[in-house]
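ok so for the tutorial part 2 we go from a plain amino acid sequence to predicted structure tokens. step 1 is just haveing the sequence, like this:
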Amino acid sequence: MSMSKYIRKEVQCRRVQNNLDDESIALLLSEIDQVREYEHPGSTTQDDTHSSVSCADCAERRRIEKVFELTIGLHIEMPGNKKSKYDEAKRERKSWYTHHAIISNIIARNDSIVEVELIHMAEYENKLQLCKTRRTFDLKYDELYMIHYLFPRYSPTQVVRRAEAELERFTHAHESNTGTSFYKYNIFTSNCEHFATWCVVGKEENYESLQWIDQILQPFINLGYSKQVMYWISKTVEAVRHIFGHGSKAAHFFTKLLHASSDEISEILSGVIPGWLPSARTVLFGASGIYTIYCLCTTVYLYHRKWKAAICEPCFNKQLSNLWAKFSVYGVTSFVTYFMVQGSVNIPVVIGSIGLIVLSIACQYYIPNIRKAFMAPYCCTKKAIRRLKELEIGDIVTLYYFCLPHDVLITEIHEQEDGKKGELRAVHYATDGLFSTRIVKEEYFKINLHFRSLLGWSVQRHECAHLQRFPPEIAVERARKRVGETKWNPVTNRSDHICYWAKISRLIIKEDTCDVSQSVNGKTESALLSSLLIGESDVHLSADIEIGDVVRCREKEGIVLEKSGSEREINLDLALVEGTVKFQNFSINLNTENVQVLAYHPVHCYEKPTRAQRARHLEGQSVSKKVFKDFCILLDA
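step 2 — the prediction. this is what the tokens look like for a chain of 637 residues:
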């Protein structure tokens, strides 16, 4: 038995003895998994190699809660100091743009304050350029986010080396007046987010040494790396509408022009151009041709990124399908519009054209969001299973249920002699029919791997190796705890959501334990407070709620004073405001009722037990909900 397997077995045995929770087990086993890298001859450390596949499209954004979460080589994001404002009512900081940087060194840290060295594209010597600067962040005022890459190409040490090497190239290029990838700041193709993302997942070559196809596609690749670009476009649209008015032709024209080439542009142009210019049909066909060429070029670009291992398989499939789904909507509306403009211009035709324009805009704009809502919550590829011995308990697989793809989590495997037939026992959202009530059950599925449908292999496994996972036994245990639940939702609580909730642990950030100075000399540049609310999460087990949490249930919001009951049936004593501060008891069945926990940034808040104590002091007093929450939660209230 290998060392990692032995340790893993010991951890499982001691789990019951020491009463460790699931999150602690996940953290221990994630450390054990790293031992496997050294069990094979010829293996190298993480700093000596880089991943064969990288992807920036599926990166996750997470709020920094402690300064110890800031590590060397981390890609961080923060609201821009210019054009920022603080909403006192919502206690939320808002900014028109965000800034990105790479942490190259940790100088000092103390409590919620940290002094770091950043390599980024920022204002330096009165112009925007690549530079290294020293910044002091106070989490009370600086709202920092880490960008967590599911598929990074380089290790943190390599990220810093790449950033420093590019900075050195920039310095030499500036002295010799020659170009580099980030020689000159460009909001669309060479901004701070482009640089930080390139350091983590970008290719090794310099811009000048790229092949001809890379040089052609590089602006598109850079544009794709910046998620802020689309945000700036939306702000431009708001500004244009504010200047010209929402109903003006100028605002309508610029809005469509900034979003995409589509048939509504043709209609707008045909209404404003003189009669001697090409007809609406000519403009429509011309726009269709341009849009077709655009889709074909974008498809080539996506395949090129996949060939270069610059995008993961799920993101490639998502972007390609989104592209051609939009094109399909455009094609249908253009086809109908063409036949409408063939006839005479009358009121029904005008109304119909306007309706098609609105439909086309809505469909093309919302297609990515709609598809995202119905896709699996995590970015994973699928592997076709040809023999049942390839499966293990705790695996998430897609099989066919009522002739439709359906995700389940395996709890038992019963294999027959040939290895291609057998039964799988699995937890999933079951139903007696497509329109009947759905309930979480543990059921048997007969498997025949000799059969392959027109839609693909009958069983496909979700590859989750790049995610932080619970051990198989704990994943099965967690899934079985949800049996009996009837809260199915087509967008937020499907069978795949339950499977991933059971198997994937929350992102566990390894805190930096390096010994650095505790004397922070600098001061933060931000004069505004950071946002109070981090987010909210659904409660699935009693352990998800702690004394002092702010919870929302049955359209009421309160602070937890006491908690009792089982894992799925809990009793909560809440302090809430209904004219006066009252204490109420709620008996909640998590199989049928929804409960959310609101998470606040710890730098602004009392510890959770203290919140409950302060809430008890207000019993019977007549205060507003805002005053009650501020008094119980905020340190500075």
